[in-house]
């Protein structure tokens, strides 16, 4: 009897013993085998069935765990995708199709389409559809918007961005620019709010407020405003004093030092005078800080015929233009990184004022022109 025949004979004997209802002695006698042999075959068959059942159960459990793990990963991916795309659910289908086309995660395209409430068939039809003229114009605008966003140090919002595009000869509205910036996640970088500190606890005389919060000026060198602020570096504090011409909002003089002394403000004013050579009668406005009320500062103002004006006590709105400049400087430059040295800060501020703020940055108060452009047009 061959090996295969033996295995088949044994399996048949076991089947008969377990299902025929006859006694094992009778079956063994009919098949011509010993009763002990039949019992051994039955015992081995039952043992093999138990092992096979345990192995099958373990394999099934592993497969189910793997299936649940994959499903859990996909559900977490769905949750993260829904968080990112919340703003697109109320958007037109075209916007949702564009978002789906950029997705390259583990979820199938059909599943992503269901999440966004669109059909896979509609998505495929949109992808085959030729690009419309409006979309091509939007793509061109986005090239300009990204360039301006980088050039402006990520500081231009929708109004300034729109005016900059118009100045470049592009016919575009605020709503369209806002939509493109929103869809492409182009945002203005803003951080902390500005904090004003002025030391007015001194015995120097105080001058009246001649501006009365009227920051308009009929021409150059008619009204100047001065103020100072502080900046933290890893080497310690550094202090910045500036002088602005209120006609063009241009920074015409500035100085940085490690101490907040009268020399800090005096040097900034001297640089402004050297640049502009103002005629007598120019109004100089500052706060009541001890530096601006010092004898040295007053003598310099008197020597050049300035009319002195000072803010009221505790009223930062009386010098709002310089306060606004400091807030802009810190939001667009200083608060974006940790500064290691005072020299690094000085170089960065000099570049910001000369290369960007005075020469490029558009001001709503100047009919969306930079200070230098506004001065040239006025001349």
Q: What this model shows, in words?
A:
Residues 1-5 and 193-199 have low confidence and may be disordered. The relative contact order is 0.08. By secondary structure, the chain is an alpha/beta fold. It starts with a helix and ends with a helix. Helices cover 54% and strands 10% of the residues. The radius of gyration is 41 Å and the shape is elongated. A hairpin with a 4-residue loop joins strand 2 and strand 3. The chain is built from 15 helices and 5 strands. The chain has a 5-stranded mixed sheet with strand order 3-2-1-4-5.
Task: List the SSEs and their pairings.
Layout: H1 3-19, H2 24-31, H3 35-84, H4 93-102, H5 109-115, H6 120-128, H7 133-151, H8 158-167, H9 174-183, E1 223-233, E2 236-245, E3 250-257, H10 262-276, E4 283-286, H11 290-293, H12 295-303, E5 307-310, H13 320-332, H14 342-357, H15 371-378
Parallel strand pairs: 1-4, 4-5
Antiparallel strand pairs: 1-2, 2-3
Helix pairs in contact: 1-3, 2-3, 8-9
Proportion in β-strands: 5-15%
Strand order in the largest sheet: 3-2-1-4-5
What count of helical segments does DSSP give? 15
The main β sheet shows up as: 5 strands, mixed
User: Mean of the pLDDT scores?
Assistant: 82
Q: N-to-C SSE series?
A: HHHHHHHHHEEEHEHHEHHH
* Percent helix: 40-55%
Principal-axes geometry comes out as elongated
- The low-confidence runs, each spanning 5 or more residues with pLDDT under 50, are 1-5, 193-199
Query: What structural class do helix, strand and pairing data support?
Result: alpha/beta
Chain oligomer state = single chain
Radius of gyration, CA atoms, in whole angstroms: 41 Å
Distance between the termini: 119 Å
The beta-strand count equals: 5
């Amino acid at each position: 009897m061959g090996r295969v025949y033996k295995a088949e004979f044994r399996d048949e004997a076991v089947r008969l013993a377990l299902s025929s209802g006859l006694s094992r002695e009778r079956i063994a006698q009919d098949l011509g085998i010993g009763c002990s042999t039949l019992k051994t075959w039955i015992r081995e068959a039952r043992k093999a069935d138990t092992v096979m059942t345990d192995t099958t159960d373990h394999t099934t459990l592993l497969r189910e765990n793997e299936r649940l793990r994959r499903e859990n990963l996909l559900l977490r991916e769905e949750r993260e995708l829904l968080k990112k795309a919340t703003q697109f659910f109320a958007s037109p289908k075209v916007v949702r199709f564009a978002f789906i086309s950029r997705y390259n995660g583990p979820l199938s395209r059909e599943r992503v389409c269901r999440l966004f409430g669109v059909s896979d068939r509609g998505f495929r039809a949109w992808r085959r559809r030729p690009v419309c003229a409006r979309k091509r114009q939007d793509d061109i605008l986005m090239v300009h918007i990204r360039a301006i966003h980088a050039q402006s140090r990520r500081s231009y919002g929708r109004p300034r961005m729109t005016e900059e595009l118009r100045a470049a000869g592009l016919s575009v509205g605020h709503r369209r620019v806002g939509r493109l910036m929103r869809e492409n996640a182009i945002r203005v970088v803003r951080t902390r709010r500005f904090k004003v500190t002025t030391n007015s606890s001194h015995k120097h005389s105080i001058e009246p407020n001649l501006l009365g919060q009227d920051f308009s000026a009929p021409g150059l060198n008619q009204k100047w405003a001065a103020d100072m602020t502080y900046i933290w570096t890893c080497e310690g504090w550094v202090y910045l004093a500036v002088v602005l011409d209120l006609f063009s909002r241009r920074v015409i003089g500035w100085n940085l030092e490690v101490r907040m002394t009268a020399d800090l403000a005096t040097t900034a004013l001297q640089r402004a005078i050297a640049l502009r050579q103002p005629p007598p009668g120019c109004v100089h406005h500052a706060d009541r800080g001890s530096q601006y009320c010092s004898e040295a500062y007053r003598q310099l103002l008197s020597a050049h015929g300035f009319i002195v004006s000072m803010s009221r006590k505790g009223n930062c709105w009386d010098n709002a233009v310089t306060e606004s400049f400091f807030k802009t400087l810190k939001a667009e430059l200083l608060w974006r990184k940790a500064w290691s040295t005072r020299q690094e800060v000085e170089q960065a501020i000099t570049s910001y004022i000369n290369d960007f703020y005075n020469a490029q940055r558009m001001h709503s108060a100047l009919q969306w022109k930079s200070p230098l452009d506004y001065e040239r047009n006025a001349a």
